[in-house]
Amino acid sequence: MIKTKNLHKSFGDLEVLKGIDLDVETGEVVVLIGVSGSGKSTLLRCLNFLEMPNEGEITIDGRQVDLKKDDLSNVRAEVGMVFQHFNLFPHKTVLENVTEAPIIVKKMKKERAEKEARVILEKVGLSDKADVYPGKLSGGQKQRVAIARALAMEPKALLFDEPTSALDPELVGEVLQVMQDLANEGMTMVVVTHEMKFAKEVADRIVMLDEGCIIENADPHTFFNHSTNERTRQFLEMVDV
Amino acid sequence: MPEIFTTLYEVFIRTYPGFLKAALITLEITAIALVLGTALGIVFALMKISKSKILQTIANLYITLIRGTPLIVQIMFLYYGITNIVVLSNFWAGAIALGIHNGAYIAEIFRGAIQGIDRGQEEASLAVGMNRRQAMRRIIFPQALRRAIPPLGNQFIITMKDSSLVYVIGVSEMFGLANREAAASFQPFETFLVVGMYYLVLVLIFSALLKWYEKKLDVDSI
Ligand SMILES: Nc1ncnc2c1ncn2[C@@H]1O[C@H](COP(=O)(O)OP(=O)(O)OP(=O)(O)O)[C@@H](O)[C@H]1O
Ligand SMILES: [Mg+2]
After folding, report:
1. pLDDT in tens, A77-115
2. I need a surface site. Which of A202, A225, B31, B108 has the fewest CB within 10 A?
3. Residues of B with CB below 8 A from A77's CB?
4. How far B60 CA lies from chain A's nearest CA (Å)?
């Protein structure tokens, strides 16, 4: 579903991604981990073209993206993204946050967009908040709205960049639950997270980044129990699983 | 001491019908200048934050020229410039000059407001498939507009005072009237004191309205 080949990204002199080859199958949940600054967010943002790679190829759903010729908006519409700080639209209600993109981007009729949005809000457990503004929501509720907003575009894959890092501990569970439900439904997901329990239980594969390189790419069992990589062992000790 | 009050009162009574009319002209010129300035301001703010070097340069040139020269020079320049080409009343020439002047300041207000919106808003818009234009129109600009309202209110008050300068091209707004009145009555001190009070009252009214509105916005803000 998402495939990168020899992906490079630099900010000025700083090379952040040094040739990433990643292959995410349809329906697969890949958890991306690594220490701070290892390039996780940059990689994720490249997959959605919020950052432009300097070199390498990205293939989405079998089509290699041409940075110069393709309309990147169309590509982004197919791959949803959930941010650490939610980035909800504060001047729009929860329902409007969810219907905005279908109406503006897909030119969907308002009535239909609202009907579909209500179904999605129901799914993330926020039917009763449809007419509320984001400012009135808890962090966990905000993040569930952000997930609903991404789902409304019926994306082929979803990217999550530390979706629970900004949440109070007691609110993490409700967001992870929604993500787990999505995974169970077969959504293709790439998730940057420090939630090792989620990685263990939900991920199909764990990819570890270190200084812009993939140094580990394995199923959770192998990763957590049988890794021989020195950096991985250090990381696992640090996050204390 | 009481004598000055008596003459002030006399001047006030004698001049207030004229000043009320002139106040209306002051408010009209101010409103037109603000509307025109806001339209220009939005356009030049968008040019300034655009990716095009040419548009940026044009916007910078405009802003530098306006901010680097006295308003009274701009009024004279535009008055003689415009009325050489088209037939235009002094009132409109003055209003347009003030509008063009305000455009530069309002452009900076909007640029600041737009750039003050968290980058995450644009990223979230792009991430759901909007293009930059749609993100600006639907997500960023509406939020920036809200933020721009308090400084725009301030600009309104500044413009109201600045509009006195159009007296130089013979517009009968409050200051123009005061000027003529002062000369005709040989009571310049009293007349300018009175016109000063008119400006002060107008400024205080609009400041109060602005405060009330900001409070309301703050309550609504989410
Ligand atoms: N827009 C940018 N301009 C310059 N440098 C950047 C930019 N974005 C990221 N970097 C740098 O790239 C490196 C990798 O950043 P990235 O955000 O991808 O790391 P990360 O693995 O997500 O870290 P964290 O766990 O802290 O989120 C860091 O050194 C960061 O400072
Ligand atoms: Mg990050």
Report:
1. 999 999 999 999 999 999 999 999 999 999 999 999 999
2. A225
3. 128-129
4. 27
**Closest residue by CA, ligand 1 atom 1:** A11
The CATH topology of domain B2-221 is MetI-like fold (1.10.3720)
Q: Which CATH number fits domain A2-86+156-239: 3.40.50.300, 3.40.30.10, 3.30.470.20, 1.10.3470.10?
A: 3.40.50.300
Can you give the pTM of this predicted structure?
0.89
What are the domain boundaries of chain A?
2-86+156-239
3-state secondary structure string across chain A: CEEEEEEEEEECCEEEEEEEEEEECCCCEEEEECCCCCCHHHHHHHHCCCCCCCEEEEEECCEECCCCCCCHHHHHHHEEEECCCCCCCCCCCHHHHHHHHHHHCCCCCHHHHHHHHHHHHHHCCCHHHCCCCHHHCCHHHHHHHHHHHHHCCCCCEEEEECCCCCCCHHHHHHHHHHHHHHHHCCCEEEEECCCHHHHHHHCCEEEEEECCEEEEEECHHHHHHHCCCHHHHHHHHHHCC
Interfacial A residues in 72-131 facing B (CB < 8 Å): 73-74, 76-78, 80-81, 83, 85, 87-91, 100-101, 104-106
Provide the ipTM.
0.94
